[in-house]
């Protein structure tokens, strides 16, 4: 089945759509983002093809768009893909971050890979599939474009599944992050099957405020909380070698002995330390994917230099592997702090959800692998759990299979992209954008085509 009748025209189409999405500057600062500008851009694009859709406004200027084609099972979603982006300043960028400028074959701009590239590619793939008379899906094809992922999804997927689950229900979804080659020039493509959970922890101590000139008369809360933060920051949770890490390591072009070392609880920490000392960006990823991580990041409650604080709270970012839960987190917080200090502190959490993952022996996984092989012959896809979070977690909690999927050019590797997420000079090559657009269309044909 020929999906794109005029490839060059379609490549230009998806490139221009991405540029417009970047220029709309839907920055999410944690309170608002005005994503409706990008939602309306997607709507105008679908209007050109005469396609139906529905817009769900969760709060003022914050929209979500759903288009569907077909009325049977399984329900397969291109998305949920978010149109909000994190802030960016001009300093350090080769071109202005919201210019959408093309330079040396790359489209630059905030959101170029997180994840306006996917929004554009999935929208174009959906439009061309639905308007193709040869495409008669066995199930239902959905296009889900959402808001607020960068601030937790409260006005996006979380709101939609709470208020409009009947319409947004899906059996399979394709969201972020995936499609990178393990190393430049290889045909081993990583697709996200799961992500770490989060246990956002608050460590509070209520002491006695006083004057800095007479510390003995007070009980310095800053000292207690600082000691707790220090102990947590220097604690090493146990290494866990999960099936996803083994699959990841087995995809490396290395010897069997090296693979054994990388999947050894004894040797892996030493290898990670050595890689980190050499500045290898794989080191922090390997560390994050093989243990719970604890990052003390903030202290609140101090007043001025000569006032002994009496009430101080420290905030700690704890990330959980699939299978780890609140009970596991508290067990290791207690172990890190020690019994005496643990009992003196008030420990609560502001955000919690467990690590989560989808199986990778599914029809969608097979459809994705077939699509990748059609575009990059003799390739394979490898499951990856990521340390960050995506909207996929909301669907996994509903029982759906959720993958982070795209397809970047094999000329570029995962290392090339790790620093671009929320970083300077975020960009995607026109070549990769077009490859991803083809990948989504081929995957859907493999999954739902009659």
Can you walk through the features of this model?
This protein has helices spanning 7-23, 36-48, 116-130, 157-163, 165-168, 221-233, 243-250, 256-262, 268-277, 282-288, 326-337, 339-344, 363-375, 392-397, 414-418, 430-448, and strands at residues 54-59, 62-69, 75-82, 102-103, 106-108, 140-146, 172-175, 178-181, 188-195, 197-206, 210-211, 293-300, 307-308, 311-320, 346-353, 356-357, 380-386, 401-404, 427-429. The mean pLDDT is 94. With 450 residues, it is an alpha+beta fold. The longest helix has 19 residues, at 430-448. It folds into two domains: 7-195 and 356-448, Zn peptidases (Aminopeptidase), CATH 3.40.630; 197-353, Alpha-Beta Plaits (2-Layer Sandwich), CATH 3.30.70.360. The protein contains 16 helices and 19 strands. Strand 1 (54-59) and strand 2 (62-69) form a beta hairpin. The strands form five sheets. The chain has a six-stranded mixed sheet with strand order 1-2-6-3-7-18, with helices on both faces.
Separation of termini?
11 Å
How large, in whole angstroms, is the Cα Rg?
A: 24 Å
CATH superfamily of the largest domain: Zn peptidases
- Main beta-sheet strand count, sense and barrel state: 6 strands, mixed
* Secondary-structure arrangement, i.e. CATH architecture of the largest domain: 3-Layer(aba) Sandwich
Quick gist of this model?
The protein has 450 residues and is of the alpha+beta class.
